[in-house]
Amino acid sequence: MTGLDPISPIEAVQMYHEAMRDEHAASTRKSEKHRLRAFIQYCDEHEIENLNELSGRDLYRYRTWRREGHGDGREAIKLVTLKSQLATLRRFLRFAANIDAVDPELYEQLTLPLMKNGEDVSESTLKPERAVQILDYLEKAHPASRDHIIVMLLWRTGARTGAVRGLDLRDLDLDGSHPRVSGPAIQFVHRPKTGTPLKNQDKGTRWNRISEKAARYISDYIEYHRDDVTDEHGREPLITTKHGRPAGNTLRKTLYRVTRPCWYGEDCPHDREISECEATQFDHASKCPSSRSPHDLRSGRVTYYRREDVPRRVVKDRLNASEDILDRHYDRRSDREQAEQRSNLLPDL
């Protein structure tokens, strides 16, 4: 390899992270940074001090090393995890070639594992009927509470947690007075300079209609339960803690907690003694096998829309995701359900 400038792996990775600031959301940069930590560790353990020296043989060895769980102290990792880790490394190597750190074709020597049908898609979801059950419970037992508003907004809009977390009071049109939106609505806005970017950046900025009932609950939350605070940028967040805007994982923890069956009065389906269950302890709700993440709730919402024959274009716009992503990662209808829905739309032959 000729014409390369010596550079350490850690310096090249730092340059890659810095370059991503121009085009990628903070959540994406964080994921890429996490996935490249193992590569930095590998280079350190194998005394690769100059990235110019990296070869196809090194990449093969790294793939095997990572597959066996080295790099984070775990056992062998899943194939889908390995694929995402190697895909990040390929993107980094293409960047490294642009700064004369590696050979331009080196990234092509890092092959990604082939996935069987559906192997790279999570099957976990929050069934629509269960989401409605939890929301009904919140409306009766904790109306207009922060938990209620978080679950209601995530379910009713299908938005990502980052979008809901980034809402300000100024983003609300609860009386339906906006000239371009008929009825109550909220606006998701990309504001990266003040800490609340949207995943799809400016393309993610959009208005979403909400029901009058939802608008009333939000009004009650603001009047009776919202902490009257601003965040570190002087903005007035809708969802608050006593210290300002909640941290990024607060909404996730809320979902883990309220989706446990014991939380809303159901018997434990896992034959656990509730008084002794670790998942009932603070910050351990995710250890309940029945707890679900915001991604699971989002997939449940897509499934609900598709069962109701809501056009894919409408779902795509409301959730700010491509039709391919919705079909592949969020739609949890069974093959039988999809076949029956198609037959209902087709004329008799």
UniProtKB/TrEMBL annotation:
MF GO annotations: DNA binding
Domain Tyr recombinase: start-end pairs: 121-343
Residues of the Core-binding (CB) domain: 7-97
Basic and acidic residues bias: start-end ranges: 324-340
Biological process (GO), any one: DNA integration
Keyword entries, A-Z: DNA integration, DNA recombination, DNA-binding
Annotated spans, Disordered: 324-349
UniProt keyword annotation of DNA-binding present: yes
Xref: Pfam families: Phage_int_SAM_1, Phage_integrase
SUPFAM superfamilies cross-referenced by the UniProt entry: DNA breaking-rejoining enzymes
InterPro entries referenced in this protein's UniProt entry, alphabetically: CB, DNA_brk_join_enz, Integrase-like_cat_sf, Integrase_catalytic, Integrase_recombinase_N, Integrase_SAM-like_N, Tyrosine_recombinase_XerCD
Gene3D superfamilies on file: 1.10.150.130, Intergrase catalytic core (1.10.443.10)
Protein name in UniProt: Tyrosine-type recombinase/integrase
Organism: Halohasta litorea
